[in-house]
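Chapter summary example.
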Amino acid sequence: MELVWRGLTEAFRLLISGDREVWQIAYLTIRVSGVATLLSILLGIPCGAVLGLGKFPGKSLLQSLVNSAMGLPPVVVGLWISLLLWRSGPLGNLGLMYTPIALVVAQVVIATPRVAALTMAGVMQVENGIAEQITSLGASRVQQVYLILKQAWLSLIAASMAGFGAVVAEVGAAMAVGGNIRGQTRVLSTAIVLEINKGNFDIAIALSFILLSLSYLVALTLTVLQRRRLM
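The structure predicted for these 231 residues follows.
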């Protein structure tokens, strides 16, 4: 318990004192995970809507692939992306390995299936209840999709929360494609692992409190949006 208290005290000290490295790590975490979550939403919600509302051959196969992709091990994602971005890889000439962009790419691959699968489930649930009613009112297909997505707003918020949660604390892929380079690709999750390996448990606990606080603030913001939608 004493170690936890020291870690909490250290977290306040690092933040209040304006420790440059800690703020830099926190900022990079917010920037990378925020961009990755936004891109996964832009990709995952349309994909989930198509899979949930569309009618085409192979739909069941694609749905099962998206659902199974939710369980992709992050370290495996990191491995394959690093193979693509490595100097001798197909995209090695872009020079993206061990950069924040590589972190974003890995996180997008991890988060997009989660956003798509939850969106798909949400719109399918709504469609079963109001599809016939919307059709009877003479709505076009575009209007139907819009109204269904509007009704599934809470599911879309939940999908966004799941996408952010999947990437903000991710370690395996971040290590593989980012390398945990100080001042360049070190984010809160990889910094915590580094401090644990060094035996600096008080600093690791301090960073974990900062990461938990960040996650809570994002979750709180999205929860407020959910409550406003219900009001």
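To summarize the output: Residues 28-198 form a domain with the MetI-like fold fold (CATH 1.10.3720.10).
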